[in-house]
């Protein structure tokens, strides 16, 4: 019988380096044995939600069981809590229990990173991060490590959080500054990540022609970070790519802009049929998928 490893946040992060995560995400998208049922999202009293997200390939089965409690942000508590349980398909044994928030943060940033590597017209930066929570930190880490950016601009409703993330960026050797107007910052940033609670529009201005925007905060039809005009501009003047086909009923930014989400390619399509460098701004809409958690489990088993 194999020994079950119960990993805390630090141990989980140590098993999920970004280059390995990117490789496994691409591998999962090309693996015909991967199966990902629709996730269960159960509303809870008080405005939270319980997520049950299973997936498997020929060797590994996982279930992510997490709660999402938006109200925790005001109280200084984590908004995402839970675990990812990893099973051996052949024996049915549990192999790992990974920290759910750490998996969510790192695999989401790795998906954005993979999309930027394949789609960004200009990956040199500066990078604009809107939202300075856990996802802001993970995207900063991933883009700094693997895209080689040298400068980051940060906006957050919380000045303390923005300054803390800027301090972290400086410890990474980056130039960093906090900005009060993210719309104005779009003019100087070809790389943009929005990772807010997605309860209101945070970007309305039109991006640069060589911009890559990863919008990761909104994952239900009611959630939104990007203004409708921005989304429609990317549709007309550039390109929109979604993370998976599930975005057809989850991408609140695009749905509220009146766009036909079903008509956009998914990341798997981009990897399978790479084409010439995109012209105009690229909007990558990420909603989340248990396949990304399966990729994280595969990476964790290798490290």
TrEMBL record:
Q: Example GO molecular function term? A: hormone binding
What protein name does the entry list?
Answer: Delta(1)-pyrroline-2-carboxylate reductase family protein
Pfam families to which the protein is assigned, alphabetical: OCD_Mu_crystall (PF02423)
Coiled coil location: none
Q: Which GO terms describe its cellular component?
A: cytoplasm
Alphabetical list of NCBIfam families matching this protein? PRK07340.1 (NF005603)
- InterPro entries reported in the protein's UniProt record: NAD(P)-bd_dom_sf (IPR036291), ODC_Mu_crystall (IPR003462), ODC_N (IPR023401)
- Which Gene3D superfamilies does this entry report, sorted A to Z? NAD(P)-binding Rossmann-like Domain (3.40.50.720), ornithine cyclodeaminase, domain 1 (3.30.1780.10)
């Amino acid at each position: 019988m194999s020994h079950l490893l119960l990993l805390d946040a630090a141990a989980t992060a140590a098993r999920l380096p970004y280059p390995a995560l990117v490789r496994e995400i691409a591998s999962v998208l090309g693996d015909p044995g991967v199966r990902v049922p629709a996730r269960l999202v159960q509303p809870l009293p008080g405005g939270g939600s319980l997520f049950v997200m299973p997936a498997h390939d020929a060797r590994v089965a996982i279930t992510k069981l997490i709660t999402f409690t938006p109200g925790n942000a005001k109280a200084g508590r984590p908004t995402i809590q839970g675990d990812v349980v990893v099973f051996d398909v052949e024996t049915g044994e549990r192999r790992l229990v990974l920290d759910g928030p750490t998996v969510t943060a790192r695999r989401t940033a790795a998906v954005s990173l993979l999309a930027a590597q394949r789609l960004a017209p200009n990956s040199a930066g500066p990078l604009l991060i809107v939202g300075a929570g856990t996802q802001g930190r993970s995207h900063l880490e991933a883009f700094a490590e693997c895209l080689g950016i040298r400068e980051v601009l940060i906006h957050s409703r919380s000045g303390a959080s923005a300054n803390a993330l800027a301090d972290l960026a400086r410890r990474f050797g980056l130039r960093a500054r906090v900005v009060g107007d993210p719309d104005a910052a779009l003019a100087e940033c070809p790389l943009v990540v929005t990772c807010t609670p997605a309860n209101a529009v945070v970007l309305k201005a039109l991006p640069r022609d060589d911009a890559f925007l990863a919008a990761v905060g909104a994952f239900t039809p009611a959630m939104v970070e990007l203004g409708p005009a921005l989304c429609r501009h990317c549709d007309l003047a550039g390109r929109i790519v979604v993370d998976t086909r599930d975005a057809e009923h989850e991408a609140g930014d695009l749905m509220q802009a009146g766009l036909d989400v079903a008509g956009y390619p998914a990341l798997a399509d981009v990897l399978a049929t790479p084409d010439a460098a995109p012209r105009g701004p690229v909007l990558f809409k990420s909603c989340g998928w248990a396949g990304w958690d399966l990729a994280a489990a595969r990476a964790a088993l290798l490290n």
